[in-house]
Amino acid sequence: MEHADEIKNTVMSHSEKVEHIVSGACKYFGISRDRLMEKHGTRSVYWNEKRYFVPLLYDFTNARHTEIRDILGYRTASNVSACYARMKNELSEDMYGFDKTKRVYNELIEFINLK
Fold it and tell me: What's the first-to-final CA gap in the chain, in angstroms?
C-alpha cells in the first residue's frame, strides 16, 4: 500500500477509489474479495464485517446504492439502503452503546488512509 501522504495527494478516478477502499477494507478484515461477495445471513461473521463497506463506499465515493449492491453482492439496493441507515445510526454522535462500531469504523478509515 502506498504511503498515506501519497494517497491523500493523489487524484483517483471513481473506479480506482472504489477499488482502493474495497481492497483496503478486505485487507483490514482479513477476508477475500470472493468471501465478501457471497450472500451472508445476519448471524454470519462476514455479515458484520461487510456492513462497514457500505458507509465507506457511500461517504467516500460517489457510488450509489445500486452500484454498492453490485460491488458487495447484496440482493437489492434496498438492502444497501437499510444497511447504510443502520450503520449511520450506530455511528452517530447521539447513539450510546455502539463504541465498538465507531472504533472499528475509525480504525478502518485510518487503515485505508481516507482522512
Answer: 15
Q: What is the DSSP letter of 94?
A: T
Expressed as residue numbers, the domain containing 12 is: 4-112
| Residue where the block lists cell 445476519 | 42
Number of domains in the chain: 1
pTM of the shown model: 0.80
* Helix, strand, coil abundance in the chain, percent, nearest 5: 70, 0, 30
CA angle 50, 21, 36 (to 5 degrees): 30
CATH number at residue 96: 1.10.1750.10
User: Tens digits of per-residue pLDDT, 37-84?
Assistant: 777 666 666 778 888 999 999 999 989 999 999 999 888 999 999 999
Contact 56, 90 (CB under 8 A): no
